[in-house]
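Sorry, I am new here, but would you mind making up a protein's amino acid sequence and the tokens describing how it folds?
***
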Amino acid sequence: MSDRYLDQFSSPVSKLVRFFQRSRDRWKTKQQELKAESKLLSNQTRAVEKSRRQWRERAFAAERRIKELERELKSLKSSRPPR
């Protein structure tokens, strides 16, 4: 570091170095934890969206099947001779 820059600080350089290293290490650790949490949440969001999409597709398929069976039932009732 230049002497002009160091003149701003009243603490010894060795203490400053330790302080800045600790500060940097804490920052890196915090960022790594946040990155891991972000990735976890992103994966969880993707899994939930996939699950919703699958359930929605199943529900639409079930609705189509119900309508198909209702039409079939209606046609069977109409083709049956009256009693």
